[in-house]
Amino acid sequence: MTNLIVRHKIEDLNKWKKAVNDGLAFRNASGELSFRAFRAVDEPNHITVLCEWKSLAQAKEFTQSKELRERMESAGVIGQPEFFYLEEVQI
């Protein structure tokens, strides 16, 4: 499994939350297994998402898709999001 961190700025939290909820089926069909969202304490319009994916290939395909770009734009995402693909280190 792969973890993905997405960081971006948004216009409006309620607008963004609605878009996230509306996109659940799209994300699940793309291979997402879990989704958690956080906002910066000192900058509430800065969002960080942590989600788990079935595979790195599916996560990359999702983040590079035209549909995601369109959905993020309609959700009020400002600027370019940052994507970080992570693999767990066993300690």
User: Reading side by side through the largest sheet, how are the strands ordered?
Assistant: 2-3-1-4
What's the overall average pLDDT, rounded? 96
Instruction: Please report which band the strand proportion falls in: under 5%, 5-15%, 15-25%, 25-35%, 35-45% or over 45%.
Output: 35-45%
What is the total tally of β strands?
Answer: 4
Level-2 CATH architecture: 2-Layer Sandwich
The best one-word shape is: globular
Indicate the CATH topology: Alpha-Beta Plaits
Structural class, from helix and strand content? alpha+beta
Percent of residues in helices = 25-40%
The H/E string reads EHHEEHHE
Descriptive account of the structure:
- This protein has 4 helices and 4 strands, in the order βααββααβ.
- With 91 residues, it is of the alpha+beta class.
- The chain has a single domain (2-86), classed as 2-Layer Sandwich (Alpha-Beta Plaits).
- It has a 4-stranded antiparallel beta sheet.
- The longest helix is centred in the N-terminal third of the chain and has 10 residues, at 13-22.
- It is globular, with a radius of gyration of 13 Å.
- The model has no long low-confidence stretch (mean pLDDT 96).
